[in-house]
Amino acid sequence: MKPLISNTIFKEKNKIYxxxxxxxxxxxxxxxxxxxxxxxxxxxxxxxxSKLAAAILNGLDVDINQDFNxxxxxxxxxxxVSHISDILKKGYIYAVENSAVSxxxxxxxxxxxxxxxxxxxxxxxxxxxxxxVPSVDLIYQDISQRNQAEIFxxxxxxxxxxxxxxxxxxxxxSIDVSLKPKKAYEIISKKLKEKNFKIIEQIDLEPYEKxxxxxxxxx
Length: 219
Description:
Oligomer: single chain
Structural class: alpha/beta
CATH architecture: 3-Layer(aba) Sandwich
Number of helices: 6
CATH superfamily: Vaccinia Virus protein VP39
Number of domains: 1
Order of helices and strands: EEEEEHEHEHEEHEHHEE
C-alpha cells in the first residue's frame, strides 16, 4: 500500500484507505473493509458512500495535513467525517449537522474519536457556532440546498484562514432540476468568483455520484 497524498491517504490498486487509529481498531463505521498491514489497520474509503473519496479517485488534489483544523458543513452520519478523523492525528474536525437523526449517529462515531467535535446547528448561520469553531485550515461542504454557494461563502468569511483551501460538493439538481449539470456548476463557480475566490479545480464525481462536482477554491 502506497501513500497517495502526504502520507495520510493510501492507495492499493483502485481503492483508497485511511489508517484506523489504535483506539478504534476493529471498529467499522459503515461496514467498510478493514485491512491489516505491518501492525497497522486501514479502513477502505468507499467512493460510492463518500463524495470526497470519489473526488480523490477522480484526481482531486487535496492536501489534508495531520495537524489541520477542518470545518465540515453537512456532516450527516459521519462516513466522510470518520475518514478525515483518521487523517487528523493532531488536528480537529468541527462537524456541523442540523438533522437530529443524523446527529445521534454522528455523536456515536465521535465517542472514540476525540478529534471530532459534533455541532448540532444550521450552517446557514455560521455565527451560531463561533464560540466553538476557531479559524480553520480547510472547509469542506456537502449540503444539498439551492443556496449552497451562499452557505459556503458565509462560512469561509467567518472561519477560513488566509491562503487556505475550501471544497464544496455541488449537487446540480439542488440548484435547478431544469438545468443541465454543466450549467448548474457554472452558476456556482460564477458566484464563487464574484466573491473573489480563486477556483483551483473542478472535478466531476461520475461514475460514483451522478450530477455532482467538487469545486476547490482558495482565498
